[in-house]
Amino acid sequence: MNLLRGKVVIVTGASDGIGAKLAATLRERGAKVCLSARNEGRLAAAAGPDDLVIPGDLTDDAVRRAIISKTAGHWGTIDVLINNAGRGSYLAPSEEPVEEARALFDLNFFAPLALAQLATPHLRRSRGSLVNVSSIAGQISLPWLPVYSASKFALAAITTAQRAELRREGVHVMGVFPGYVDTDFQRHASGTAPAVIAGNRRFAVTAVECAEAIVTGIEHRRNTVVTPRAGWLLVWANRLFPGVVEARLERV
Ligand SMILES: NC(=O)c1ccc[n+]([C@@H]2O[C@H](COP(=O)([O-])OP(=O)(O)OC[C@H]3O[C@@H](n4cnc5c(N)ncnc54)[C@H](OP(=O)(O)O)[C@@H]3O)[C@@H](O)[C@H]2O)c1
User: Rounded to two decimals, what is the model's pTM?
Assistant: First the structure.
């Protein structure tokens, strides 16, 4: 049974990386897909002929309103919002300019929150899904991605609260916590990844694998997706032995 056939799904950050593969995977499942991001050329390359493309910067409220109103206007409903767009920063806490930290939170936390607020009346009607793509860095503070980790912790926290608010109204809310995914994330981030991280791409999952795990999570209305699943080991190690994990991560 194909649970997403005919469903209307918005994917942010769909011009590249995980978002572009999400759009492709959803299209294969028969979903009606709306793609959004800034780069119009890359969005056009990622989109299929029947997809809706709404370019723009998600930190702009007018763009967020256009995404929701145009999608609902075009297809009459919204079944799934996937808040996937995000950006990293490898700058140390003592060095990250506060204005840049604010800009990172604007994209990684406030934009998903605002889009969710705009989409919620539609998701209540469709009894659909709200999906927030956090990170393993939203479960464990990674010292080489400090402000990014903080923004993804914030997103993880609001995801739990959104689930508590919306579950009784039939809306499914899912947090996604990817580990290392082979995309251009490092190139798009501020600062430089530590050499040991940048050189360890062989441990990364592909964007296709990550997208498949997210789509399967939506189909099964899971609360949480950790991908690769081995990431759970790190999450539990950190919950049980936080001092040990912190000391180990400090040496990276
Ligand atoms: N790769 C990893 O290892 C990894 C691990 C854990 C979590 N994640 C999370 O997964 C999500 C996708 O990451 P990715 O690896 O696919 O990164 P990516 O390849 O850099 O893609 C990021 C996407 O976000 C869009 N974007 C960036 N700034 C934007 C803005 N201001 N307005 C609208 N769209 C914007 C980009 O498109 P434009 O530039 O065209 O706007 C692009 O489509 C992010 O939330 C990231 O934090 C990634």
Answer: 0.97
